[in-house]
Amino acid sequence: MELVTVADLPKEQCTGCWACLNRCPTNCISMETDQEGFFYPVINTNQCIQCSKCVTVCPVLSPVSEPLSWEKPKCYAAWSKNESVRFHSTSGGVFTHLAEAVFAEGGMVAGAQYRKDHLVEHVLIHSSNELEKLRQSKYVQSEAGYIYRQVQAALKSGTPVLFVGTPCQCAALNIFLGQKYDHLYLCDFICRGVNSPKVYLAYLKELERTYRSPIKQVWFKNKTHGWNHFCTKILFENGEVYLADRETDPFMLGYIKRKISCYMRPSCYQCSFKGVSRPVDLTLGDFWGIENLLQDIDVNKGVSVVIIHSEKGKQLWHTVQNLYTIDNISLEFVKNHNACIINSVPTNSNLYRSMFFSLLDNIGYFKARELLENKEWSD
Ligand SMILES: Cc1cc2nc3c(=O)[nH]c(=O)nc-3n(C[C@H](O)[C@H](O)[C@H](O)COP(=O)(O)OP(=O)(O)OC[C@H]3O[C@@H](n4cnc5c(N)ncnc54)[C@H](O)[C@@H]3O)c2cc1C
Ligand code: SF4
Ligand code: SF4
Ligand code: SF4
Fold first, then answer.
1. Does pLDDT of 306 surpass 50?
2. Which of 16, 109, 134, 375 is the most exposed place for a label (fewest CB within 10 A)?
3. Chain-centre distance of CA 282, in angstroms?
């Protein structure tokens, strides 16, 4: 059955990319949160003219069919020559130098920033002075807002744009634009998935109560104990600091530990945007396992894997400065050490998930996590 609007897309398939809202000619789509805190499109049927433009722009319902990338992408290891950029970035700091290369062309950069309420949104920035806002991975879904319309307007005015986002956001932009622009650089990353904004806020609120202070800054995958032993670091207005590593921070554990993973967006457990060849110019990621390939590398500081998919990606890559790079990296090696490039995280049981969310509403984040800590459930 052909769908007329995205209202009929099964909820668990919707990635929350916001492309339908950007496309709707009557602006009758709003994005509203469900009980788990994820955004989904809601259509005002009084204003809907049944044009189906929301369906044709949806990357799940109308995926790009033509291969836009090279069949054999090229793969590099890279890290910043600037120690501060490297430390303050999640992997090796490649994003910052890609962005600088695009600014040097007179371009703009779209990426995810924290808002004052610590939630995350996509914005378009104009200069490298603003880069700090976009740096670092934020492990909660970024609200795309009207970013696709903004990127399109910039491209139409001739301004080069680097767009960085999840693979589903990049797919959404590709379809939304509907044509190729020589001055658009699309960059996605190896994506495990995005967490529920509601769970994330509940976790932060409880930390604020414990530390008796508002939060000043959230910093996931902080490298105080090294990139391989990343920590969650949270700075409070009163000067206190929360620092917990990947084995002890409950929020990170609930994200990365398979048996208790239960608060990513449902679409992330069945993601259709995985793979090595992708319709983007570049893919970034953590170069997990690099120490097995290059023994003399300082892994504590972070190393990026960079996959180049297109001629345009290659041209941009050759203009990037301030990076140490190693070429001829085997994609097989990368795949073997970073499963999320190919596979979705397996779904935990629905019972476990619904128990978690119901406990979250009743007893709060930390107690809910504690109660379910050592339990395994099957449906
Ligand atoms: C939710 C998420 C899951 C990831 N999962 C994996 C994984 O499983 N394996 C892996 O190897 N790498 C993963 N990455 C990618 C990795 O963490 C780094 O973001 C990437 O390698 C770039 O690092 P960098 O050092 O070059 O620059 P950084 O400065 O760390 O770059 C961060 C870039 O990501 C963008 N960004 C940050 N948060 C978000 C967000 N929530 N939504 C959209 N864009 C965002 C920023 O705008 C910026 O452009 C993930 C990133 C995110 C955000
Ligand atoms: S069918 Fe057209 S008018 Fe209706 S919600 Fe979709 S895009 Fe908007
Ligand atoms: S996947 Fe994106 S375009 Fe499709 S319904 Fe969900 S938010 Fe809209
Ligand atoms: S895992 Fe897939 S669906 Fe989830 S945010 Fe990443 S690209 Fe989108």
1. yes
2. 375
3. 14
If pLDDT is split at 50, 70 and 90, which confidence band does 49 have? very high
Pick the CATH number of 6-57 from 1.25.10, 3.30.70, 3.30.1360, 3.40.50: 3.30.70
What are the structural domain ranges in the chain?
Answer: 6-57, 74-194+265-341, 197-263+349-372
> Strands of 215-222's sheet, edge to edge?
215-222, 231-236, 241-245
| 304 vs 307: CA distance, rounded Å | 10
Q: How far apart are CA 149 and CA 98, in angstroms?
A: 22
CA distance 252 to 249: 6
Q: In this predicted structure, what is the pLDDT of residue 3?
A: 85
pLDDT in tens, 216-244: 999 999 999 999 999 999 999 999 999 99
Q: Which numbered atom of ligand 2 lies nearest the CA of 4?
A: 1
The Cα–Cα gap between 185 and 316 comes to: 8
What number is the average pLDDT over the span 31-35?
Answer: 98
User: Which ligand lies nearest to the CA atom of residue 28 in the structure?
Assistant: 2
Contact 234, 215 (CB under 8 A): yes
Ligand nearest to the CA of 273: 4
Q: Which tens digit of pLDDT belongs to each residue from 267-277?
A: 999 999 999 98
Residues 6 or more apart in contact with residue 105 via CB below 8 angstroms: 160, 183, 319
- Which candidate, 223, 217, 224, 221, places its Cα nearest to that of 240? 217
How far apart are the C-alpha atoms of 249 and 195, rounded to whole Å?
A: 15
Q: What is the pLDDT of residues 164-214, one digit of tens each?
A: 999 999 999 999 999 999 999 999 999 999 999 999 999 999 999 999 999
Tell me the average pLDDT of the chain.
94
pLDDT > 90? residue 284? yes
Rg (CA), the chain: 20
Question: Dihedrals φ, ψ of 330, to 5°?
Answer: -75, 125
